[in-house]
Amino acid sequence: MLVPVLLFALGLILLIKGGDWFVDGATGLAHRFHVPELLIGATVVSIGTTLPEVMVSATSAIGGHGEIAYGNAIGSIICNTSLIAALTIAIRPSNVNRKALIQPVLFFFGAAVFYACTAWFGGQFTRLTGFILLAGFVVYMVLTVRKALSTPEMPTEAEQETSEGSPLYKQLLLLVVGAAVIAVGADLLVDNGTLIAQQLGVPESVIALTFVALGTSLPELVTAITSLIKGHGALSLGNIIGANLFNLVLVSGVSVALSPFSVPASKTIGGMNASLVLDIPLMFIVMLLMTVPAIKRGRLARWQGVTLLCIYAAFCVFQFVG
Asked: 142 exposed, middle or buried (CB, 10 Å; 0-12, 13-18, 19+)?
């Protein structure tokens, strides 16, 4: 038990340092190319912080553990929104760019409806489903990059000095090395944390929806906290929304395309599959709670963060006790 605990601690250290480099590189690029931080967060940063989910889910699917690939994607969305985003909103509510927020939010709910209908009416995810999800990822990236390039954001004087003072290669290096260190740190945490949980007798399906989901969401958590500390709240929000979308179209798309699997039914509520009547609906609820008020008012409120945190606490209690 000592070795897993030590490796778990090492993973945490790598996540913290990697997150610091990653945010510096991402914000530097945003200021250099006059791109809104929210769009950088919803594309480049989101891809980087979603890499652990891609690796874990793809490996699980190929290994015949579809329940982990499925639970990790849904669980990560719930965790990203009702824990990670909730913490940043509860600590420091901020204004948001409504125009920049609309496109990723619409893409997310479009992908979520397709994903949910496939699970509810089909009961399984075929290879075709995976290719459709991956096609959605490509379309989103193309449209988002085109939009970012056509609507440049004028930087402040301080941001201009920062971007000009740091060479481009250094910003790219910080981004790439930061993402790599985050991925290694997350891998250490997930592998050893899961091993510790298994030794304590926690079921695999519960580990996927909670522990593995939380572990692979740690890059988003580290990025969110680091962004908050550095005063880049828009980058954090964009990262969460982008990461949630990528959990559906990229993480699930890659996993299903490599190895199709059926919707797991290891837990029931009133004789019905808990994943279909709780996990998927909850995914919609927490995202609506976070995004609709933000788009309507152009600002996040502390009550949203507190409510989301309460929802996540209840979700975890149900998974382990219910």
From this structure: exposed
Question: Which amino acid would we find at residue 56?
Answer: V
Q: 3-class SS at 173? A: helix
Whether the CB-CB separation of 77 and 210 falls below 8 Å is answered with: no
Average pLDDT, the chain: 78
Question: Is residue 154 exposed (0-12), middle (13-18) or buried (19+ Cβ within 10 Å)?
Answer: exposed
SS3 272: strand
Predicted local confidence at residue 217, as pLDDT: 66
Q: Is 92 exposed, middle or buried (0-12, 13-18, 19+ CB in 10 A)?
A: middle
pLDDT digits (tens, 9 = 90+) for 101-155: 888 899 999 999 999 999 999 888 899 999 999 999 999 888 887 876 676 555 5
Judge contact between 35 and 152, C-beta under 8 A.
yes
| Residue scoring higher pLDDT (191 or 258) | 258
Q: Is the pLDDT of residue 159 over 50?
A: no
E-strand ranges in the chain read 124-125, 261-262, 268-269, 272-273
Measured in degrees and rounded to the nearest 5, phi and psi for residue 112 equal: -65, -40
Q: Any idea what DSSP says for residue 261?
A: E
Model pTM greater than 0.70?
A: yes
| Boundaries of every domain in the chain | 38-152+186-321
Tokens of 102: 């609309």
- The candidate with the shortest Cα–Cα distance to 294, out of 213, 252, 254, 236, is 236
Q: What is the pLDDT of residue 22?
A: 74
- Tally Cβ neighbours within 10 Å of residue 95: 12
Q: Reduced to 3 states, what is the DSSP secondary structure of residue 269?
A: strand
Query: Confidence class of residue 307 from pLDDT cuts 50, 70 and 90?
Result: very high
In CATH terms, the fold of domain 38-152+186-321 is: A middle domain of Talin 1 (1.20.1420)
pLDDT band at 158 (very low <50, low <70, confident <90, very high): very low
